[in-house]
Amino acid sequence: MSDVDLRKLRYFVAVAEHLHFGRAAEQLFIAQPVLSRQIRALEEELGARLFARDRRGTALTAAGEQLLADAKPLLASAEALRRRVIRADKGADTFTVGFMPGLIVTTAVRALTDRHPGLEVELVRTDWFDQVEVIHDGRVDVSMVRLPVDPRGLTIRPLYTEPRVVVLPAGHPLAGKEMLAVADLADEHLLQDPDLIPEWRALATELRTDRPGVPVFRSVEEKLEHVAAGHGIIFLPLSVMTFYTRPDIAYVPVPDIAPNEVSLAWSADRPVPLAEEFAALAGH
């Protein structure tokens, strides 16, 4: 079998994520027949059928599922390699830090640059969907993350914890309370992954098993818009609350929900100079 072509892998991942050749071709800016030929060529190279296509649509085969699981980290590693080579070619003495909404890295960054004159620190704002991805694909050297995250391929150093609050529409009957218990909110519609709030999930599933599905949002701002519109509630770390004050929503502390854990993460597969030092500074 010949070596796997990374370009074909990128094409495969696009189709696998869309499960639609036309939309994948649009994303890749290539013609659909070209994409189909490339996927057929990849299947021939691997000796396995990757997609099942019929009148109902396109689905991954077992081989396709396995390739998707393996292709994403491989492509991320290739992208990280490209970024490191470009950085080395420029001779730039830089250190790039990712950070989630509500997390302030200024003090640690200043302390690091005081210790290393001439070091240029770049900052990248992340979100739940890419706070780890930016590490794997080389966009950042380290990322200040909110747990839980997939720990595979990462070194993770705990920094601190912070309490969480519930976000309610301003007109909600509970919006004026000084604090709430999880039990007070068990019958509400949660607009985020219930696995992130196990205390709520345990009580909520006892009350009802026919709850509607959880929509997928790409940012805190989207979630807050839906809360303000009365579609449901979310839980946020306390620090995020201070960045998103608005008159149509209310924040109430929920002491019996476990605090959010903040950690610093970086690649376990390659050396990351200054990572341990920055972790020590960020944890103070």
Structural descriptors:
three-stranded antiparallel β-sheet, 284 residues, five-stranded mixed β-sheet, 10 helices, flat, 39% helix, alpha+beta, 10 strands
Describe this structure in words.
This protein has 284 residues and is α+β, with helices and mostly antiparallel strands. It contains 10 helices and 10 strands. The model has no long low-confidence stretch (mean pLDDT 88).
Strand order of the largest sheet: 4-3-5-10-6
Number of extended strands:
10
Query: Count of helices?
Result: 10
Give the ordered list of helices and strands.
Answer: HHHEEHEHEHEEEHHEHEEH
**Low-pLDDT stretches:** none
Percentage of β-strand residues: 15-25%
Quick check: average pLDDT? 88
Summarize the structure.
The protein has 284 residues and is α+β, with helices and mostly antiparallel strands. Helix content is 39%, strand content 20%.
